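fyi for ur records
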Amino acid sequence: MAEQSQPRIIETAASMRAEVRRLQREGLRVGLVPTMGALHDGHLSLVRMAQKSCDRVVTTIFVNPTQFGPQEDFSRYPRTLERDLQLLREAGCQYVFVPSKDEVYPPGYSTEVDPPAVAKRWEGECRPGHFRGVCTVVLKLFNMIPADVAVFGQKDFQQAAVLQQMARDLNVGMQIKIGPTIREVDGLAMSSRNRYLSPEERQRALSLSQSLNAAQAAVAAGEKRAVTLAAMIGETLQPQVDHIDYVAIADAETLEPVDAIGPNTVILLAVKIGKTRLIDNCLLSPTRHE
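which gave:
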């Protein structure tokens, strides 16, 4: 049963690193779940995933300014620390790392991590500089919290791919695990940004999962042409969303576009509904019978 004691809050990198190393000297495995707070069941599922293979779990809460563009929602991004701590207590998370901006980016800081090639398309094109900020802060967190395992969510599919590649390329000595997308009962992928949606906008947001479900059904029925699937998805989305950033059908490892559905294909969606930008995805496999 999950522990119900209040998680220990740590605010400095030196203290956090020292505590992780102390735990590891005692033979305990440490898991890391990086977040920007405003926690929901999707985040908590990652905590539970870390708990399955680790003795102690550290959840980070830091709204990273370097991954937001000038026209994006950094200032209005939800900050709900007290509620987050309560949720983490109920989940049995033992540590919460809550650094200040100056702790992560001290005065005079000027080093950045250039993201790998898998970052170039899709989100990389729509949000220039975003993955540079993500890679920089996550590598910093890896150094501040030298855990055994780090867990990220499939809901941010491209981000997960970018961080896995960065970890391989830079010889990060940490296992990277990816947890499945967690959805509301009606299919909407859980996201901290869902709280921005009005009731009417939230209803329209269901078109993302509906379009993915339709594409999966078409593939199960034998459809393999990416252009056909993209058109089908577009027809579902267009009446419901205010802007489509992209409908991508790509190789799940390289994220390069494909013409036909293969054994490792992903659909990636990014749209705007009102002022809120939403993403979603699903993995596809072609039917086994002709």
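The two ends are 48 Å apart (CA to CA). thats all i got for now
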